[in-house]
Amino acid sequence: MNQPGSAILLYCTAAAAVLIYLPFLVVAYNRLSVGYDMSAPRAMFDKLPPYAQRATWAHQNSFETFLVFAVAALMAYVTGQNSSLATGSAIAFVVARLLYSVFYIFNIPLGRSLMFAIGSLCSGTLFVLSLLSTNNPATLL
Questions:
Q1: What distance in Å separates the CA atoms of residue 107 and residue 9, rounded to the nearest whole number?
Q2: Cα separation of 58 and 6, whole Å?
Q3: Tens digits of residue pLDDT in 43-68
Q4: pTM of this prediction?
């Protein structure tokens, strides 16, 4: 049975899903300001200001990293990970991804790269914790 601390893994997964669309709000606002063309929505990309183009890239990258994190977090949840390392990794991922989008939109490459690395490390930590616990059947009870 999963312990209450492991519920944080599920909350963080939901929060990470919401964060996918945060940069898109910037894109949506700018699409409206340049005139949204329903027949060619991607054609307007070149008309967007640079920060809105970066918001588009942050939005797209958020989909990519969410898939890895969601699998890692759900593996951790299923294997009953409720350690401070597991919950801290999940929370740190959400914070890192929020800051990743902010740094990307404001064109701060070093901050963006650091947040990407931290997010990747957090997902990797959850994978490792989950896999280590599968070698010890007592942790699954």
A1: 30
A2: 28
A3: 677 788 999 999 999 999 999 999 99
A4: 0.88
